[in-house]
Amino acid sequence: MRVQVVVEQQFWLTLPELADLLQIPLPPTQSSGFMWRNFVCTPVPNSPEFWQISRAQAVPTVQLPQIQKQISSQPAPGSLASQYVQIENFLPPDLVSKLLDLTLAKESAFVPTGVTTQDKNYRQSLFLPSFSQLPVWPLILAKIEQVMPAVMEILGIPNFAVADIEAQLTAHNDGNYYKVHNDNGSPPTATRVFTYVYYFHRDPKAFEGGELKIFDTKIQNNYYVAAESFSLVEPIHNSIVFFLSRYLHEVLPVRCPSRQFADSRFTVNGWIRSHQILHV
Q1: Domains along the sequence of the chain with CATH
Q2: What is the mean pLDDT of residues 106-135?
Q3: Cis bond leading into 204, ω under 30°?
């Protein structure tokens, strides 16, 4: 009842007030939003110290194909094979079209990506800082939440309470890439369990390359390091990939002859966090 009043009256709440209202652990301050039951919780635009709650829009249903685990076919001797799932036809066609239209309309708002080391030659791409405020994000978020239990089961990860699902919208154009890295190797990112990448692009496809290279794993001095073997994931339109955030991975260079923004390799990518560090 209290939540319904907040939604109907469009009250703004601080993070501690929101956590108290929903009776959940305090969400991360950098969170771009999360689902709670049938509601969407997001920071207030231009006032990120406050949050608002709204009812989730109905997600159009679509029959998902069977989710199958993919495993590195020829892991190097002494290494642990990487595994992932890739789900094709992930979003309904009308939602994919809306996402692409909004992406192209926001071209001028995209800015260069970076890395915490400030190395300008480690990553080349663009991203949209305000993506979580677009009306398509709650619909995509709901679909990700829908498949997460199956993803956890198939990849053999014990079911855990999801604390947050982060997201960013990226564009890779001619010559863009992202060198080898993992996604939970620092204290601020340590609670990331899964990384996901949703691919979409204009039809006909106007770029080549941009494959996701997921390395198998070796253990050296109690640390995970990349093995010589790997899996190569094609950026299939309207497909999504899930894999463990601890895996070393990279984005291979994109070749886009036109160099037009609209011909880019687009992704909605992000991370699924737990409330505490999981050793998986």
Answers
A1: 2-55 (no CATH), 69-274 (2.60.120.620)
A2: 88
A3: yes
